Amino acid sequence: VVAVDADAGLRNLDLLLGLENRVNLTAADVLAGDCRLDQALVRHRSLRGLHLLCLSKPRSKLPLAFGSKILTWVADALRRGADPPAFILIDCPAGPAFFPA
Q1: What is the topology classification, in CATH, of domain 2-96?
Q2: pTM to 2 decimals?
Q3: SS3 of 65, please?
Q4: Cα(1)–Cα(85) distance, rounded to whole angstroms?
Q5: Where are the alpha helices (DSSP H) in 1-101?
Q6: Smallest Cα–Cα separation from 5: which of 65, 43, 51?
Q7: Partners of residue 2 on adjacent β-strands
Q8: pLDDT tens digits in sequence order for the chain, 101 residues long
Q9: CA torsion angle for 24, 90, 13, 3 (degrees, to 10)?
């Protein structure tokens, strides 16, 4: 299972899972070419099979207009990976601005 924290402005899924000190790389780093997707995944040490992927670091300047495109890319990349997850859970920010019509 991969849980994706897609709230670029107010990331908090890492806090809820107790992984806040282990998030060093994000999907934004992958898109920038700074790392591979598997390097940005944070494995939960006590919940076997659970990985976290944060879309960006807190207070980043990632444009919200790209939200749905980035999530589509992330989901496709996870499915094409060497060990695709059975489930991808996405924690989205509130409001319609994230998925413009």
Answers
A1: Rossmann fold (3.40.50)
A2: 0.83
A3: helix
A4: 5
A5: 13-16, 27-31, 37-40, 67-80
A6: 51
A7: 51, 88
A8: 999 998 776 778 999 999 999 999 998 888 889 999 999 999 999 999 999 999 887 655 555 555 567 888 889 999 998 889 999 999 887 765 555 54
A9: -60
Q: Where are the alpha helices (DSSP H) in 4-62?
A: 13-16, 27-31, 37-40
Q: How many helices (H) and strands (E) does the chain have?
A: 4, 4
State both tokens at 53.
């992927």
In three-state secondary structure terms, 5 is strand
CB atoms inside a 10 Å sphere around CB 69: 9
